[in-house]
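Still learning folds. Look over my entry:

…
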Amino acid sequence: MTTADFARNRDNFCYRHPDRQSFVLCQRCLRTICPECQIQAPVGVICPECLRDQQKGASTAQRKAERRWGRRTTTIAAPLDRRPLITYGIIAVTVLVYLAQLVPGSPVQQLLAYNSGFVIPQLGSFQPWRLLTVLLVHSSWLHIGLNMLALWMIGRILEPLVGRVRFLVMYLISGLAGSVAVALLAPLTWVVGASGAIFGLFGALLVIGRHIGANVASIAIIIAINFAFPFVVGILSGSLAAVQISWQAHLGGLIAGAAVGFIYARTRTVRQRGWQIGLLIGLTVLLLALLAIPATLYV
């Protein structure tokens, strides 16, 4: 699934295993390393060669202090666990919330679903947490099943590629952007589901894959089909209003996810970590600032 340009660029592959693609760099030598070669260090991960060099460079006093206080060297650790635990965690929490929705008389959906009226203080019921809790509630087994299947498929690829914390940040920012887009384009409309965040992961995978030289045509086709689906159904049924799919959330999540993917792709090194955090905070602030528009126009 790789292009010729991707295959020729050795920076996209582990330097110790040239057949293994990776997006993670050793924090010391900045060479690409696959999950098997990643060793947890105090900050980030390092490769086996840098670990050996660091151990050789330890002074006699350092080694004596470690023996005296019974401490293990902080750089000696097992290979980093690359299982997509955040993906599994999100799926588990979402399924538990949906099961809680099925309890007769359960108020879960009413408490967690999203309507832009809850982020407009002038309306008297300000509940901004709904911008994100909407990701946990779904309207049917089919709805949650398709969303969690897509999350499982993308998360297994994307989470090991960017890391757990970055993946969670990407998911939340994409979900937030989906809610903001609904407030801007479909004010006072009730929505549920994690589709905005899922489309954000699609967008991020598209941008990151393009950046490392992968063939992203199939991803682009999947995104186009999923985004066009509600419009096709609306045309066939004779009314877009009859389609119970929030294309606004899809669009917002897709754009924000692509933006986060671009930030990650352009700030891979340790020296750029401050820029990465600053840009992510700036993007989040921008999304929240956009909520001032419906508060001004629709009240």
